[in-house]
Amino acid sequence: MSVWQAFVELLKRDLRLAVRRRAEIANPLLFFVMVIVLFPLGVGAEPNLLERMSAGVVWVAALLAALLTLDSIFRSDFEDGTLEQLLLSAQPLSIMVLAKVVAHWLVTGLPLLLVAPLLAMLLGMKSAAMGTLMLSLLLGTPVLSLIGAIGVALTVGLRRAGVILSLLVLPLYVPVLIFGAAAVDAAASGLPVAGQLYILAAFLAMALSLAPVAAASALRISLS
Amino acid sequence: MNSFMKWFHKWGSPPWFYRVSGKMLPWLTGLFVITLVYGLYAGLVLAPADYQQGDSFRIIYVHVPAAWMGMFIYMVMAAAALVHLVWRMKMADVVLISSAPIGAAFAFIALVTGSLWGKPMWGTWWTWDARLTSELLLLFIYLGIIALHSAVEDRQSAGRATAVLTLVGVVNIPIIHYSVVWWNTLHQGTTVARLDGPAMAPEMLWPLLSMAFAFKLYYVIVMMLSARGEVLARETKSRWVRELVGGK
Q: pTM value?
């Protein structure tokens, strides 16, 4: 089996598993919606205030939702032994990790992307910024999944990994948050956004090439 | 090169490290006390008060070296992580994990002193200024490393997992730093490491450099003490430790 075939097969398998457990797709989305609903309730429903905050709130909520689902990248495969088989297989582990991350993003990141404009509207974001919001999430959320994969790979063997995982991963998420929210803010005030989006794209290129390797070596350590 | 590699590998041997660090510690401590006393006296008493900031500028004699150490120790840890992952050198692992709490402490000191300085200067304990924020994020990264190391039960995989995390961090720290700088900046520009020479009076600069040197020595001393303890704990069963403690 070629590497590419193995990649596609693993991707298909993960997607099939996800489709059979639909609740796991719906729950993070619900969480995302709820966090965003909490903000107007907490800070008051003044349209001006909400509009100012909308870019940041949507991005922070997306970040937290991504964090919540990270564990599912490797956890169930770790528990039933699939992960060990992947490690033993002849295919390069980093490519297998990449397949799992892509599947994870398709299942958790993509739905987020589709719901985000609706929620941004609830917060009164200008419609001019919607396109940029989608684009920044399209470039940014895969980076969240990729960086997160390293964190999960490091903590997958631990019994209570949740809190430690967020400690490890959240500081690394900061650049994505800054440039993601900044792009949307700039778009809302009618400024050019190409710079921020290019930087997000650069983060994505870097994470795509480096994160799978780091996650693979972390997995080897966790399973040794 | 050959003799360098030989010297390099000697540091990888726990008994050799234990013996040599034991001999070095008194000297380092003496030098540390001298530089610290000179730095403090010259900085707090001899140096003139700043014409704008008055005496409150003197907090830089603690703040700036601590902030430098926060970065410096991370770089040492990253080098140790690389050595540990590439050459599987046991001592690198010990250095890495002994350094993490010290680095976190320095980052914390830099934050606290920065905040104490900010109150009279900026009129607020905390501003979301770029350097303060990236120092805070650096502290979080340190705490993450410590948390991961204490969460993994097996000592060997704990060391290697921590090394991987440290290397992931070292790629990210510049990105985080420049993102935060881009995001907001209110802090004053660089005053020491400038191409046209330091923009500081020499009688203010020398105590600062002396303090920076003292802090580095302090780090080496504390790291060695902690590493010696760690080495003894790891090698409890080996012969040289038994001979050392007088057992058979």
A: 0.87
